[in-house]
Amino acid sequence: MPDTSDLVLGGLTPDEAEREIYQHILSRNPEHDFEPTLDRVREACELLGDPQSPSR
């Protein structure tokens, strides 16, 4: 593994950059924390021509 002790990333040392990235990840909402809606499903059905419609 290459030595990165003197590497500077955007003015940050690798350790500082790692801490900043980790804090950013922790600040985001978890992927399972969302409000489910049917809006996207309705839009997809409209694009498919409402395949569930009995008029077909």
Q: Can you describe what's shown?
A:
It contains two helices and no strands. It has helices at residues 14-27, 39-47.
- Helical content stands at 40-55%
Low-pLDDT residue intervals, each spanning 5 or more residues: none
Q: How many DSSP-defined strands?
A: 0
Into which percentage range does the β-strand content fall? under 5%
Mean pLDDT: 79
The coarse silhouette is elongated
Structural class, from secondary structure content?
A: mainly alpha
Task: Fill in the keyword field for this structure.
56 residues; mainly alpha; 2 helices; 0% strand; elongated
List the SSEs and their pairings.
Elements lengths: L13 H14 L11 H9 L9
Summarize the structure.
This protein has 2 helices and no strands.
